[in-house]
């Protein structure tokens, strides 16, 4: 009961954070139009970073056994966001004003509002069929789109990492090589898209497990 209450509070905090971000983005766009897109990171970036840092706890939840999700897919999804948000976007002010950041945040928060709503209700034993269907179906088209957005965010950041030398390291003597960070990001792009296929397979597997056979959990609607 204690662990279930803790997980409910965790999901509630994440739901509140992502709902605030999602609502803020919509209201700002309806008020200021396209002008709001370039200012997305400065308006909601702090709350977004807090939510993503908090999501690292989900890896711990799986490791200690209070969450039965598969570790590797969840680990990949969380680390992808951490790397793109903190390493790529947060470190380059020029990237923060790009429209792709708004697109990326919109996709992330749309997915998370649905996911944490479903999780909260599931902690209390409530399963609504439309919400269950949405939770396990929406991620299948939106996750690949978010990966494309991540890849594009990395791509547009490369010239700035080249110009400013951010995170690039030249090792002192006796070492004779340096770490050129844009090359690291280009290699990570390959990892990002390779991991996408693995995670998509896991998403289909989860959807089949929850929706494929008229799961009894979906009685309440």
Structure, briefly:
With 221 residues, the protein is mostly helical. The protein contains 8 helices and 2 strands. The radius of gyration is 19 Å and the shape is globular.
Q: Can you put this structure into words, describing what you see?
A:
The structure is a single chain. The protein is globular, with a radius of gyration of 19 Å. Helices cover 76% and strands 2% of the residues. It has one domain. With 221 residues, it is mostly helical. The protein has a two-stranded antiparallel sheet. Residues 214-221 have low confidence and may be disordered. Helix 6 (99-123) packs antiparallel against helix 7 (129-164). The chain has eight helices and two strands.
The arrangement of helices and strands along the chain is: HHHHHHHEEH
Strand order, largest beta sheet: 1-2
By DSSP (H or I, 4+ residues per run), the number of helices equals 8
DSSP helix fraction: over 70%
Mean pLDDT: 90
Oligomer: single chain
Number of strands: 2
* Shape category: globular
Radius of gyration: 19 Å
Keywords:
221 residues, disordered C terminus, transmembrane helix, EC 4.2.1.134, fatty acid biosynthesis, membrane
Show the helix and strand layout.
Layout lengths: L1 H31 L7 H16 L1 H7 L7 H19 L3 H4 L2 H25 L5 H36 L4 E2 L7 E2 L1 H31 L10
Antiparallel strand pairs: 1-2
